[in-house]
Amino acid sequence: MSVKEKHLSGSPSSVTKYVAEEKEAHRGRSGEEYTTGYYSQNNEVPSMWLGKGAAAQGLSGAVKSADLEKLLAGVTTDGTDISKRGNHTKERRMGSDWTFSAPKAASLLAIEDPRIKMWMMEAAQEAIEEFFAKEMAYARKGKGGALTEFSENVAVAAHLHEVARAADGTIDPQIHVHCVVPNMLQRADGEWVSLRADYGENNGKVYTLGDVQ
Length: 213
Fold this sequence. Notes:
This protein is an alpha+beta fold. The chain is 27% helix and 29% strand. The chain is built from six helices and twelve strands. Strands 1-5-9-8-4 form a five-stranded antiparallel β-sheet. It has a three-stranded antiparallel β-sheet with strand order 7-6-12. Strand 2 and strand 3 (33-36) form a beta hairpin.
């Protein structure tokens, strides 16, 4: 599978609505009601919490949008707010979306075989927990952040999407998993701090991340 990182933009609310494929109700000028949103027809997107950092915060099973929104805002489930640390002069980074995509052939086969969707979620989980958390996630500590500490304590919200919009505007089958990684990491001393990612020399670790399955 291929993997691509995108730094999150917008608001915590807009990010959670996107990955959960939530639809919003609107009313037109003439009073008619309509909805907008992503491509979900039943508003039930398969999702799950990944990582030891999620477990440490009591997060497991399906992702609740309210919990993800809170973490993206820089607040842990126990109420610790790390968003104001560091005297940020710019808006604090919410986190990243690591998107794992299946080959086109697998996406087409998944229309008839739901097991492929399950396998895709399992592959993304293995990539996040067995490589990203162990080899890429780290934090700075010490005076001026001179020291580096790698930690597996990441909290990641994974959502499975089944389609993408093709260039001509039509809906195109594409199995992919959005792994939303809020910008927080728990160090060995228990403190939650901002998360950094080690991409490796020439982005070598990113390429390896897509091969872990």
